[in-house]
Every structure is written in C-alpha cells, then in structure tokens.
Amino acid sequence: MRIWASIGCFFTIRHGSLGESQPETTEPVKRIESFGSWRKPPTIARAANLAASVVLGSFAVMSGLTIRRVGAALGAEVTGIDLDQATDDDVVAIRAALLEHLVLFFPDQALTLDGHVALGRKFGELEVHPNLPRPDDDHPEVVELKASHGGIADEWHSDVTFLPNPSVMSILHMVESPDIGGDTMWANQYLAYETLSAPMREMLDSLHVIHNASPHGKPEMMAMHPLVRIHPETGRRSLLANEHFSKRIVELSHTESESLLKMLWDWSVREELCVRHSWTPGTVAMWDNRCTQHAVVADFVGERIIQRVTVLGDSPEGAPPRWDAHSVDQLSATTVHDKILHQYFRQHPDALTRG
After folding, report:
1. Of 162, 170, 184, 311, the residue nearest 240 (C-alpha)
2. What is the b/e burial string over 118-140, where b = at least 16 CB atoms within 10 angstroms of the residue's CB?
C-alpha cells in the first residue's frame, strides 16, 4: 500500500489490502509522520485488520478519497466520500488528513441531525455547549447559529477556550448560506508561533492566559491555559490566545498583558497564515481546534444557518511555569484591572505551580 503524490496540489490516496502487492512507481511517496486518535489511537493490530491504516513514520492509505489543497498555510477539500456513511477506515484516514491540513472541507453532503451526531461520535465524545442555542431538544450536542438571531461569530477565536478542556475538533454543516459573502476564515496557529522571533518564543513559552465566557454573558466561566500549547499528537507548538475569549496574561501587569495580547491577536491572523472558504449549502467543514482560530466575515445580507458538533477536548499542555502570577503590592485605582486575576486564583489557588 502506498500514497501516490501527483504534481501540483492534488493527491489521491489509493487503497489495497495490507497483504496485496502494489505496482512499482517512481513518483514520490507522500508520508504522514504522525497520527493518533484524540482519545485512543488505533493499535497496529487493529490497523492491520482494517483496509485503511496509518503506520507511524511511514505512509497512509485511504479508499477512494481525493484531497486537494486549497491554501498554502492550511486547508484541503476532500471528495469521494459520503460522510453519512463514513466507515472506521474513513475516520482513520480523515484524522490523518486533519493533522496534516488542519481544516478539511467536504462539499455536497446531506447530513441530517441524526447523521451529524453519529458522525461526530465516530471521532469521540461530543460536547453539549453550555451557552449556545440548539435546533431542538432531541439533539443537545448540536449547536445552531442563525444570522437572523445574531449568530455570526465574526471575532477570531478557538472554540470554548473558556473551559478547562477546550474542544479537540469541530464539525460544521452549512445548512443555509447567502448567495454572496458570509465566508469563514481559519488561521494556522502553528505558523503564528513558529514565525515569531526566537526571543519572543522563549518568553511566551512559559506564560499563561485566563480565558472567560464574557462574550456569552458568563464571565464567571473561566479557565487558565498556557499561552503556547504543545499539540499532543504532532508535538508542534502553537499560540493559544484569541481576541474573543482571552482576557489576561497571568504573569504580566495589566498594561503589559493588554499590549502583548493585542500584538499576538493581530500577528496570529495575518493573511499569509489564513485560508478563506466560500460556502455552499451542504458543505461540511472539520477543523483541529487545538492549532487553529476561525472567524466569520460579516459582509452578507440574508440568512446564514450553521449546525455544529464539537468533540470534547483535553487539557492544553505547555512548558513548565517559570514565573509567579502578577501581584499588586499596594491598592490603587488601577487594581480594578486585576479583578479577573483575583477571581481566578481565589477559586484555583494552586493553579500556577512552579517545579
């Protein structure tokens, strides 16, 4: 079994059983170096029993799918699959493609609510969002956002970073889209980190940020995460700070935190880090929430309805802490800006423990 890579940005992953010989080729082999499940990676024995498998450090195989890159920084379109009928083989291959491309687009799908939930469960346990609306009471795992009801997520964000375990991945179904506009943009947070200078990366590696759900009217919902997280499957580092939920760098003063966060928000969504997708009804998008941000372009007139499920996440891990949380030596008018620090550490006094 091999992957034949074609010239340009198209490649097709061909399929054959593990014991089946394949014709020799002089074309380059496309290798996927790392792979794993969000929850429990498939064993080699299990992979050997599947018609599709991923072998660490070697190659991936998947039946009948064509993957076309759509952006230099991230993003690919996947065809040749009916997600309503996705098999375990397909899920294995989609996971591998997602680790490589970060966001995948599947056009011409026809997911029902039941099918959407069933698809999401193939990737892990699904979240019931604590704040956003749902289409009905029978599908609590599905979030539904309607533009006519204010459901336009037009600030850059990663999903639910105000929770201790933000979601691993999201699966969005575009139910209704405007004829023009209403695109979504994603930004590669690996590259956001890797294109910083070495001194800046060294400082950021050990900082922490408090995120809260104030955009949802619930500022008491908060969590602290490393500013730079290490992806549990790829080992790459990425920025974990977004303008929607990230409120305060713990180790810095209010003024320092405000200035640095603003710089990082702008830096992390530069055009060269992004892919922009124009929707058609029936398209499904999947993205890795651990290394991307996304935002809607609010330039449209008319209805726009999306339905989304998210896979429950893990606790973001980063480098060990190097500094204590910022403290105020004397009370003054400026200490009001430290309120979020005091609130968080009253609830979690041992949250920032240095080794």
Report:
1. 162
2. ebbebbbebbebeeeebbeeebe
User: Distance between CA atoms of 294 and 217, rounded to whole angstroms?
Assistant: 21
Q: Which residues are catalytic?
A: 157, 159, 294, 308
316-342, pLDDT tens digit by residue? 999 999 999 998 655 555 677 788 998
Per-residue pLDDT of 167-208, as tens digits, reads 999 999 999 999 999 999 999 999 999 999 999 999 999 999
Residue pointed to by tokens 């993957």: 67
Mean pLDDT of 10-28: 36
Strand-pairing partners, residue 307, are 144, 173
CB neighbours of residue 257 within 10 Å: 24
Maximum separation of any 2 CA atoms in the chain, in Å: 75
Distance CA 174, CA 189 (A): 24
DSSP class of residue 337? G
Indicate yes or no: pTM above 0.90: no
DSSP SS3 for 343 = helix
